Amino acid sequence: MAEMTKKKIAIISDAIYPYNKGGKEKRIYEITKRLVARGHEVTIYTMQWWKGGTTIVENGVELKAISPLYPLYAGNRRSITEAFLFSLNCFKLIKEKFDVIEVDHMPHLVLFPLKIVCVLKGKKMIVTWHEVWGREYWKEYIGAGPKSWIAYQIEKLSARLPNLIISVSEHNTRRLRSVLSVKQPIKTIYNGLDMVNILDVAPAETTTDLVFAGRLLPHKNVDVLLRATKLLRERLPNISLSIIGEGPEKKSLETLAKELGIEKNVLFLGFFDDQKDLYRTLLASRVFILPSTREGFGIAALEANACGLPFITINDENNATRELIVNGENGILTDLDEKQIADASEKLLDEGKDRLFYRGYAEKYNWDRIVNQVARAYGS
Fold first, then answer.
1. DSSP conformation class of 91
2. Which of 260, 288, 320, 349, by CA, is between 20 and 30 Å from 301?
3. What is the dihedral of CA 178, 182, 183, 184, to 10 degrees?
4. Which residues pair with 241 in a beta bridge?
5. What fold characterizes domain 8-192+365-379?
6. What tens digit of pLDDT does each residue of 272-285 get?
7. Running DSSP on this structure, what letter comes out for residue 202?
8. What is the mean predicted confidence (pLDDT) over 154-161?
9. What is the pLDDT of residues 60-108, one digit of tens each?
């Protein structure tokens, strides 16, 4: 199918890379800079993450602040205040000119004002959906009762607003249909990798046995990984674990590492300013572990394979990362259990397969291929 004609594209997301580091932010970053390289005009409407004026340009992409920077989190949870205030500011899009509008689905509230904007401007609303929560997870997240029921109804209703949904995994697509009862068109377009940059870097000087990368949030279950590391240290006294990431759980995880007596085995690295530093660390590691029970895709695990690492993740129905594993080949699925994670880690550390073996599982996920699929979706 031919490339769509040059368009003015509006992307709406409250959080953007590199100011906030996560899978959805990285997806927007990689896709938008490639759309610009193909001649499209792209503006990302977001909060003001940077200092200075309300508009800046990075990699040819215009970043435009439609609101002040509100804290994304209130304690361990996404801030309702931030969601509400940013959503109100989305009405400002009524004054903007665009041919195509794509909206990040989180927080769900943003879809309501933007649907009004699209109707008034005669535009179709495309929404990228990264993960489906559903009633049961809302109960876990904010407790059983009216609040979780209301949150689920908002999620379910918001999923009926887009003209087209771009889903980042087959797992996510199935849940959109079954959990949120979505009837309108869905295109499944995976997240991807920048293989050129990965192959262009050298390993870091400091090596590590195990590595985790991601936001330090409760559902990532890094506490279980720390307990697995304690079990491993009883067999492998020099076992090392690097934790790459920031988030509301960081202090409690640092405290837990001390309580378990493994603080000398664990290194908390925070997030890197340069993505290549993440690749350098992965290249100097041996096994990647993502003990999360809720992922819409799991791009970090894919990056680990691309850097030549096997990975371990949890066999949970809400974890789309498990679909990236050929169990026993490029990684291992386990239950959320520290002993199983420890045993799987030891097994993979002992295997010592060539890094090229694992890299082969990641090569088909290429941002250049994926951006073509996105452009066709916009054109449709």
1. G
2. 260
3. -140
4. 210, 266
5. Rossmann fold (3.40.50)
6. 988 899 999 999 99
7. P
8. 97
9. 999 999 999 999 998 878 899 999 999 999 999 999 999 999 999 999 9
Query: What does the block give as tokens for 154?
Result: 């908002």
Alpha-helix runs per DSSP H in 294-365: 299-306, 338-351, 355-359
**Residue-wise pLDDT tens digits, 28-46:** 999 999 999 999 999 999 9
Q: Please state, in angstroms and rounded to a whole number, the distance separating the CA atoms of residues 339 and 246.
A: 25
Same fold for the pair 8-192+365-379 and 195-359: yes
> Can you tell me which residue has the tokens 């769900």?
108
The pLDDT assigned to 21 comes to 85
Number of Cβ within 10 Å of residue 76's Cβ equals 14
Residue 54 near residue 216 (C-beta atoms within 8 A): no
- Looking at 3.75.10.20, 3.40.50.2000, 3.20.20.70, 2.40.50.100, the CATH number of the domain 195-359 comes to 3.40.50.2000
CB atoms within 10 A of CB 3: 12
* Beta carbons of 28 and 367 less than 8 angstroms apart: no
Phi and psi torsions of 159, nearest 5°: -70, -10
**Which residues, in sequence order, are CB contacts of 165 under 8 Å at separation 6+?**
126, 127, 128, 129, 159, 176, 182, 184, 185, 186, 187
Distance (Å, whole) CA 167 – CA 190? 7
Q: What is the DSSP string of 135-172?
A: HHHHHHHH-TTHHHHHHHHHHHHHTTS-SEEEESSHHH
Distance in Å from the first CA to the final CA of the chain: 11
Q: How far is CA 120 from the centre of its chain?
A: 32
Could you tell me the two tokens for 93? 């899009």
- Does the pLDDT value for residue 47 go beyond 90? yes
